[in-house]
Amino acid sequence: MAEPKENKDQTTSQSSENYEGWGFDLFPERRGTYKPNLKNILFQGRGNENLERVKCERKVASCLNKSPLVKIMMGALRRSGCDINPSRHIACELCDTSVHGGYDPIMNQVVICQNTAVSKGTIQGVLTHELIHMFDNCTRKLDFRNIEHLACTEIRAANLTHCGLVSSILEGHSSIFNFRKKHQDCVKHKAVISVLAVRNVTYEQAKEAVEKVFDRCYADLEPIGRRIRGKSVDFELAYAEAFLMGYD
Ligand SMILES: [Zn+2]
Q1: Cα(109)–Cα(103) distance, integer angstroms
Q2: Catalytic residue among 49, 130, 171, 204
Q3: pTM, rounded to two decimals
Q4: Is residue 40 part of a domain?
Q5: Which of 81, 174, 189, 239 has the fewest CB atoms lying closer than 10 Å?
Q6: Rounded to the nearest whole angstrom, what is the distance from the C-alpha of residue 3 to the centroid of ligand 1?
Q7: Is residue 115 domain-resident?
Q8: Is residue 111 a part of any domain in this protein?
Q9: What's the confidence (pLDDT) of residue 2?
């Protein structure tokens, strides 16, 4: 689901009749409510949506061709019989400025926010994260309205792609010796923030859902195989292991 930017207060969704609490209003273009006005164009650089989209699509295409993680996810989706056609299932769009991207389970589409996810690194991270939601939705029959299902797929996405060992040591949160505990705390925190970004629940409710399913979902490493810890060697090893796990 929606991938919130770091260090931002979560933007819980306001109610909309049909999808109350789902957070789809984080993608204003999808709801037809985003109206670029003169103030936006002058002061926030809006008005270049088409150019922005072309640039975003180019970077997405580059990730699809080059990023080992994105390639693992695309291969896993195909091998699992999930319908994945980049031009139909991955979309660059304008979003609320609080998010980088999201997964829309009704349309089965990954959304990359062309106005906030600008660097290739960010786009690669968002793509991998949201493709894990797509994979879970396809292979595990998720009900995204069920907060425990949502918590589980957010735990998996955080576990497999975020919370890097190297960055956590550099930031002073971790030594190699307490990495395991720190890594679990990082995954929990990230999953709670992600649940809060798309569901209109309290912090305590989000945390409770994450804690309840944590052990089972943290141990579930398919399809990436080993946790990605921010070192290129791990990307390469994960890519090699993907063959062993039957993905190409
Ligand atoms: Zn997510």
Answers
A1: 6
A2: 130
A3: 0.77
A4: no
A5: 81
A6: 5
A7: yes
A8: yes
A9: 65
Reference 92, options 65, 130, 66; nearest CA is 130
Domain count, the chain: 1
What residue numbers bound the domain in which 131 lies? 28-32+45-245
DSSP string, 175-237: -GGGHHHHHHHHHHHHHHHHHHHHS---HHHHHHHHHHHHHHHHS--TTT-S---S-HHHHHH
What the block records as the tokens of 21 is 């609490």
Structure tokens at 195: 């649940």
For 73-132, the pLDDT digits (tens) are 999 999 999 989 999 999 999 888 878 899 988 889 999 999 999 999 889 989 999 999
pLDDT at 241 over 80: no
Q: Beginning with the edge strand found earlier in the chain, give each strand of the sheet holding 90-93 in spatial order.
A: 3-4, 99-104, 109-113, 90-93
* Longest CA–CA separation in the chain, Å: 55
Angle, CA of 190, 195 and 199, to the nearest 5°: 155
Distance 195 CA to ligand 1 centre (A): 8
Distance from residue 170's CA to the centre of ligand 1 (Å) = 25
Taking the centre of ligand 1 as the mean of its atom positions, its distance from the CA of residue 192, in whole angstroms, is 10
Neighbours of 70 (CB within 10 A): 20
State the distance from the centre of ligand 1 to the C-alpha of 43, rounded, in angstroms.
30
Active site residue 208: no
For residue 15, being part of any structural domain is answered with no
The structure tokens 């103030």 sit at: 39
Which pLDDT value is given to residue 26?
Answer: 47
